[in-house]
Specification:
The structure is a single chain. The protein is α+β, with helices and mostly antiparallel strands. The protein is built from four helices and seven strands; from the N terminus they run E-E-E-H-H-E-E-E-H-E-H.
């Protein structure tokens, strides 16, 4: 099970102008992507077998008292079915759906009466879970 767990730190190195890439853009832009998560997901999609991705999001919020709060929440599982043309069947469609889910969750947290505001994402933890036949999927997995 531990071999299917991938963590991606969303605070990428600083650029020459001092700006920092935060958030999902670091996964979407291949030049900035320093994690094997997209390649791993693409390889599983190319195997043609359905699988599920569970995502845990670690984010920072500013409280009304100017304190930094670190919050962790889990999104509903994403079902990846490579042969489904209308659903999530590739890395770009997964990333788009992931972005929408995270933004929706953060917006809901910010609208609560506590007065917190988002300070950005810290990390995403991906857990890849085979849906049908573990033995069939195991042969297609890249080495850890």
């Amino acid at each position: 099970m531990a071999g299917h767990l991938r963590q991606h730190d969303l605070r990428e190195p600083l650029h020459a102008d001092g700006s920092q890439i935060l958030g999902l853009d670091s996964l979407a832009i291949p030049v900035m992507n320093t994690t094997p998560v997209p390649a791993y997901t693409t390889q599983l999609c190319n195997a043609g077998l359905p699988f599920r991705i569970n995502v845990i999001v670690v984010t920072e919020f500013w409280s009304a008292d100017d304190e930094i709060l670190t919050t962790t929440f889990q999104l509903p599982p994403f079902m990846i079915v490579p042969t489904d043309h209308d659903g999530i069947n590739s890395w770009p469609t997964f990333l788009t759906t992931l972005r929408q889910n995270i933004e929706y969750k953060i917006d809901n947290i910010e609208r609560m009466p506590s007065g917190v505001s988002s300070n950005g994402l810290i990390a995403l933890v991906f857990l890849f879970v085979p849906m049908d036949n573990l033995a069939a999927l195991h042969a297609h997995l890249p080495p850890v």
